[in-house]
Sequence to fold (413 residues):
Amino acid sequence: MNDSASAAFSTRPAMLEAFRWFGPADPVPLAWLRQTGATGVFSAIHRIPYGEVWSRADVREHKTAIETAGLRWVAVESVPVHEDIKTGRGDLARWFENYRATLRNLAAEGVRLVIYNFMPALDWLRTDMRHRLPDGSECLRFDPHRLAAFDIHALQRKGAEADYTPEQIARAADWWQTLGDTERETFIAGIIDVFPGCKWGLSLGDIRDMLARHAHLDAAALRANLARFLAEVVPTAEQIGVRLAIHPDDPPFPVLGLPRIVSDAESIAAILRMADNPANGLCFCTGSLGVRTTNDLPAMVRQFAPRIHAVHLRSSQRLPDGAFYEAGHLEGSVDMPAVVRELLAEQDRRQSTGERDWQLPFRPDHGRVMLDDLGKPPGVTPGYSCIGRMRGLAELRGLMAGLRAAEKDSNAQ
Ligand code: DNO
Fold:
């Protein structure tokens, strides 16, 4: 084989491996991330309150910490969207201008990929942060009847019953009865600690207030508020070379009476049309989208390919009663090889057309608590233990290497 022929058959690059880092308070330090073999970091400056500007100095400091550890800040996850923008009430002009200012400061420091979500009030939600699997490891799990127990018995939301089936309501009541006071407290805290990246110490009263602020909001109104946000920030993003990537709803259906608008191919297509511009893109999260039986993930990658800017790889096992738990990265209900094959095809397209930043960054999303991490919680952030995510990364790395090797073999034939 001559040199040019061997170049044609050489293995093409895998996607860019990244790990999430919650900042200096993360119990998994940057030095460990480096040892996983990942080269990129998805990270945010969590200490800055939602809506406030990230100054250039803040950005530089965060970036320097990552680079000093030998890693690269490939995606901001997330620049949070202030709640007023989602509800459409309040000092919107200020929040839009702050968001644009943050994007400008990030771009000025060379950070040009920004993930965000548009889930009202709550980020992701599970009903069990420590579900024990038969092999002794632990994972995150969602059970509709437990959410019903939270909603009806703990939160006592008016009209909550209407959102559940009679079976779920009965199961919720039975299950709630089995819990003692301490168990109830632990269960409630697990749900309302909103976002494990930043513990806000919220109370049930705070959640009631948050929900009340969204009471007037249906899916159409929330969608209109997202369209307004995009109209306000996408032109700036485009001008300064920043790509925005919306994260899907997790779980991908309404919870606690709150609308969800980023859950399937149709809703995502509508969002991408709101500003038909590459700066308005998607964070493709297989874990979130894979919970909905009707979502055909490989087809969705093909449909949205050029607009996918960041990727979360993880799989959930769906159960017949609507529950799901977070399975191994190559197990569960997601056809991971098929999804990754499509993503690699898109990356190849970008590389061959000479696009800047052609390599698609992904992170192994969530991971089990296993081995030496068992018993460490609450020190370990739910979903973000080191060893479980590293297992996921290793499996995904192997999957990509295998797919690339198979391509090489078929090219050679
Ligand atoms: C959960 C994450 C989400 C995600 C945000 C993006 O582990 O995937 O919290 O970071 O929704 O804004």
Remarks:
- Residues 386-412 form the longest helix (27 residues).
- Residues 1-7 have pLDDT under 50 and may be disordered.
- The longest strand covers residues 16-21.
- Residues 77-78, 115-117, 123-124, 195, 247, 285, 312, 365-366, 383 surround D-mannose (CB under 6 Å).
